[in-house]
Amino acid sequence: MSRTISIVNQKGGVGKTTTAVNLACGLALAEQRTLVVDMDPQANATMSLGLAPAELESTVFDVLMEPEFLEKAIYSTSVPNLAVLPANTDLVAAEVKLIKDERRMFRLRKALARARERFSFIIIDCPPSLGMLTVNAICASSSIIIPLQCEYYSLEGLSRTLEAIRIFRETLGLDIEIAGLLLTMFDSRTKLSNEVASDIRKHFPDKVFATVIPRNVRVAE
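The structure assignment produced for this chain is given below.
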């Protein structure tokens, strides 16, 4: 059975794209057919997987407008078992284009129904906001991973993200779980990182992944 996982946090710079791309690559290397869906107009996941956004004929924007574009908009990557439904700046116009559609928050869910037959995992990279693009991703998902940078502003963003997801679940009747909170950019040498990590584990003892992603300058380089 296919699983659809969205990487969500309304705060930027917490490692959403890095998490989405590396999780997807890991699943693909484990011989799981995996699709990355780039729902961020910045298209960083698209570029990370080797595609040039400006040169694409079809993207997730086209799929949101017309679900039958799905097959044309899925591109293979250099990683075996890994494909991508890419984005470019056209995605900025999606919210305006969909505003008159009463079921606009379910457009991605409808489009991905066909992809679930082909892929074991669908990983959705979300933009740093809780606008219509992220709502579409949440409505299309079976579970959510929330990356958290180990700093205090992340705690504020987390509370707003969790509250929004709760509202979506209750008002839209979504069957969706919080798979876990992923601590990112952790620096064990600093008091701040250790305090934030401790606070998050205290407040969400059953939801924090055991794996912690350390800060690594070489990744940026």
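Interim note for the steering committee: The chain is about 40% helix and 15% strand. The beta strands are 3-7, 34-38, 75-76, 82-85, 121-125, 143-149, 177-184.
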